[in-house]
Amino acid sequence: MRVHLLFVLLLIEVLFQYHNEDLEKDKTSQNCLGRGMEQVAKKLGVAHEEIQRLTDELQVKEKEQFAEIRESFGEKYALKNI
User: Fold this and answer.
1) How far from the centroid of its chain's Cα atoms is residue 22's Cα?
2) What is the pTM of this model?
């Protein structure tokens, strides 16, 4: 009977050990996932800033081109009325 009890206790100890190892693996996986999500969020933020910068540059160029076109049409119109 004592042998059976020792065997059961040893079996329980082994099961707890495997369970704890599984928990540690899960924690490691969750930590990796968390870090991965942080990196994705950081890259997304950098991409958003780059898109905003490019959009701003494009708007400036569009305004410059529009001003040039207005000046060009204004000069042509002024020459016709002379």
Assistant:
1) 29
2) 0.51
Structure tokens at 59: 């708007």
Element (H, E) at 1: none
pLDDT by residue (tens digit) across 5-43? Answer: 777 777 788 777 777 777 677 677 677 777 778 888 888
Alpha helices per DSSP H over 1-82: 2-80
Q: What is the 3-state secondary structure (H, E, C) of 50-65?
A: HHHHHHHHHHHHHHHH
Between CA 67 and CA 35 the distance in angstroms is: 48
Question: How wide is the angle at C-alpha 46 spanned by C-alphas 40 and 50, nearest 5°?
Answer: 140
